[in-house]
Amino acid sequence: MNLHEYQGKEILSSFGVRVQRGIVAPNANEAVLAAKQLTAETGTKWYVIKAQIHAGGRGKGGGVKLAKNLGEVEEIAGKIIGMHLVTPQTSKEGKKVHQVLVAEDVYYPGPSETSEFYMSVLLNRAIGRNMIMYSTEGGMDIEAVAEHTPHLIFTEEIDPSVGLMPFQARRIAFNLGLEGNAFKEMTKFVTALYTAYVESDASLFEINPVLKTSDDKIMAVDAKVTIDDNALYRHRNYEDLRDLREENPIEIEAKAVGLNYVDLDGNVGCMVNGAGLAMATMDLIKQAGGEPANFLDVGGTADAARVEAAFKIILKDPNVKAILINIFGGIVRCDRVAQGVIDAYKNMGTINVPIIVRLQGTNADIAKKLIDDSGLNVLSATEFQEAADKVQQVLS
Ligand code: GDP
Ligand code: MN
Fold it and tell me: I need a surface site. Which of 272, 299, 335, 360 has the fewest CB within 10 A?
């Protein structure tokens, strides 16, 4: 589950990570009230108005703006809320902004220069450990830093049995070129950040930038936080943080009927049982010259009702030009699935895209006969390659 910046910052703050303070507002009037409250609490003179959408690069798209008085807060918030913000990480249509974070200005002048760092906490699957990735090159596109100046990106791997050790926190502060109070602040910052990551069952924290203020405080100015869905049952209070407006509507619907569905950009819809077979099927489609339109695992019980639900979900995607059903009948018999496909097809009336069904396993022969005799616009196959060839045939 992805969170908005303001939600991520609330979680960080609850674990003692210093963050740029802010108050979320759904309209320009409330943005002004939020700004007044911020000044009362922090003494800030200026404000940053930040669009809250699930995508980064908002600054580049015009979704992060400095306001120097309450009039500007009202004007900027009014402009940003309701706009379709296009950033390097959104589609061409952009994402509609429903709310802004009114934040204190933390780039104020002072005894030293401000500096921006990059920091993320994530799981390194190759070594089975969490790691902290960080760089002196904050506030920019980290992919570009990785490409052009990879020596400026550091990593710290964490042994799960002992957690982040104090010497590691110090090494991070050292590599970032800090000294004095800023050095101490950074060790506190990373220690709290790592605790927050573990305790919240996050799968990603990306803080870009981490700011050293002109008076040597270290704080999170941005926060991209992803919580592991499989751990949400341990954090019932996070469930409210889900913003369905930010999620794919077809995926939400699929989830509601218990299907494992991920929307993709291609033209061949797939209906498969088992995640491994679903992955193999996507490869198969690519090899046949198509592009998968989705990942869909119908799970163990591929009965008529489930097959119909899956059909409906796949057909919601207007890019789908063919559907490949690839089901292995182990526990569920192939003839049952075939009957399910036929019943679902008939129930749905007209389906305007060709369907290729590959059923393999128990009673595959009976299943093939059922499909072939059904008189419907459905092609059957028993072998993987045969199915691939038929997909190619209907696409060309
Ligand atoms: P992103 O563009 O979606 O990554 O959004 P960020 O939260 O990272 O903000 C983008 C940029 O806005 C930052 O890199 C900063 O340069 C700038 N910014 C953020 N907060 C402040 C602030 O308090 N004052 C000023 N002057 N600039 C800020
Ligand atoms: Mn950022």
Answer: 299
- Decide if domain 1-19+109-246 falls under CATH 3.90.550.10: no
- Determine whether the shortest distance from the Cβ of 252 to ligand 1 is under 6 A: no
Query: Based on the number of CB atoms within 10 Å of its own CB, is 144 exposed (0-12), middle (13-18) or buried (19 or more)?
Result: exposed
Which atom of ligand 1 is the closest one to the Cα of 60?
Answer: 2
What are the structure tokens assigned to 205, written together?
């924290």
User: Which of the residues 5, 74, 104, 118 is marked catalytic?
Assistant: 118
Domain boundaries, the chain: 1-19+109-246, 21-105, 249-395
For residue 264, give the amino acid letter. Answer: L
Find the helix packing angle between 28-42 and 70-80, rounded to 10°: 140
Residue whose tokens read 């979900």: 313
Residues 226, 204 contacting (CB under 8 angstroms): yes
Q: Which residue has the tokens 């101490």?
A: 184
Please give the C-alpha separations between residue 350 and each of 147, 236, 243, 354, 376, in angstroms, as whole numbers.
50, 43, 35, 11, 10
CA of 60 to the centre of ligand 1 (A): 10
* CATH 3.40.50.720 is right for the domain spanning 21-105: no
Q: What is the pLDDT of residue 44?
A: 97
Record the pTM: 0.85
Which contiguous run of DSSP H or E holds residue 206? strand 202-212
Average pLDDT of 66-71?
Answer: 98
Please identify which of the residues 156, 206, 308, 345 carries the catalytic annotation: 206
143 phi and psi angles, rounded to 5 deg: -65, -40
Check if CATH label 3.40.50.261 holds for domain 249-395: yes
110-119, 261-270, 374-383: least confidently modelled range: 374-383
Residues β-bridged to residue 292: 268
Q: Is the dihedral of CA 154, 207, 265, 313 positive or negative?
A: positive
